Amino acid sequence: MARWKVDPAHSEIQFKVKHLMITTVTGYFKTFDIQAETEGDNFENVTELVFTADVDSINTNNEQRDTHLRSVDFFDAENHAQVRFVGTTYEPTGDDTAKLHGELSIREVTKPITVNVEYGGMVVDPYGQTKAGFTVDGKISRKEFNLTWNAVTEAGSVVVSDDIRLHGEVQLVKQ
């Protein structure tokens, strides 16, 4: 068994959403954790993978918007402090690609999701630590997770899209 933990200095977790259906706003979680367990160093044999993100750490580079996202209209950080993903199956689809299936929990709603994973490789850094890199992409419907706040412009345009794109650049360190 090998245990892995995220290197937060070399990882980032983002989300992207259309605003007014004409531009995309990017946000990220400043505080998150990823832990994994594999049989050996091969990620095809993941026996455990858990991702958590602190809702209070949401940052979209706009404090007013961040406060709204933490409110009961969206994530309700006071009552639901974390977003959680538990990976269940790592399914290789090519030499360096896979689908990661799992359960995403937001606001006490848990739904199965699948994200695409690109394996960037494994190296030993100058400090002797074994690191593995991944790019993760996916998409969810925010309304399926009770993130249902909605507004419409005078012209009838939707203010915030239902589709949320997920993107992660993840570096794991072997423990």
Q: What percent of the residues sit in helical stretches (DSSP H or I)?
A: under 10%
- Low-confidence runs: none
CATH superfamily: Lipid/polyisoprenoid-binding, YceI-like
Question: What is the residue-averaged pLDDT?
Answer: 92
Cα-atom Rg, whole angstroms?
A: 17 Å
Number of strands: 11
Biggest β-sheet, characterized?
8 strands, antiparallel, barrel
SSE order in H/E notation? EEEEEEHEEEEE
Determine the structural class based on helices, strands and strand pairing: mainly beta
Description:
By secondary structure, the protein is mainly beta. It has one domain: Lipocalin. Helix content is 5%, strand content 58%. It has one helix and eleven strands. It has one helix at residues 63-70, and strands spanning 2-6, 12-19, 23-29, 32-38, 46-54, 58-59, 82-92, 97-106, 109-124, 130-141, 160-174. It has an eight-stranded antiparallel β-barrel. Strand 2 and strand 3 form a beta hairpin. The longest helix has 8 residues, at 63-70. It starts with a strand and ends with a strand.
